[in-house]
Amino acid sequence: MDAVRTTAVTWLQANRGLPGARMVLDAAPLDSRLHLADCAAPLAASVPGNRPLGARASVTVHCPVPGGWTVRVPVRVQLFTRVLVTTRPLARGDGPGAADVHLEERDVATLAYGYIADLDQVGGRALARPLNAGTVLTPGMLAGRQAVRIGDAVSMEASVEGVVIRVEGIAMGAGDTGTRLKVRNASSGKILNAVVSGPGVVAVLP
Length: 206
Prior knowledge:
This protein is mainly beta. It is built from 1 helix and 12 strands; from the N terminus they run αββββββββββββ. It is rod-shaped, with a radius of gyration of 27 Å.
């Protein structure tokens, strides 16, 4: 029985590990009523499909001889690696930067929606929803790429009687084309509502 459980764990370590990750595996005890004949060949193991490991795996251990037996071994999986976690609360439309996230070791086998391990994976994209501090950043939390970031100098465009007027402003929000945000007129300091119309350009709303 111990050989069966060891085979299941060893196979997972060799075939389903994550580079740089720390794997902790715990094979469940097998039914004591199970009686298995000694196997004349080295035991073989496999896991159906090719999906990423979850918190629990079922490893098939087989005695590869004619008439050999097959047993399924339940294994509890923990897979620790460093992932990006929010350092502070973030608003929808924010583009996470180095000051907003930090690396923290987490059990990624329990993260059903994935994770992000490198800030380069964010690629200038904005958040699709607000996040609390201590939240693991996942791909599904990211919306489109940002055409405007908080603090960017932007060109504010307004149409007055058919004439387009452009003045310099400072973005007080972030987002891709179509995102509504507030901008501050760089000259007057007045706060206005606008919508992002392109990289570095916003259209002032009436």
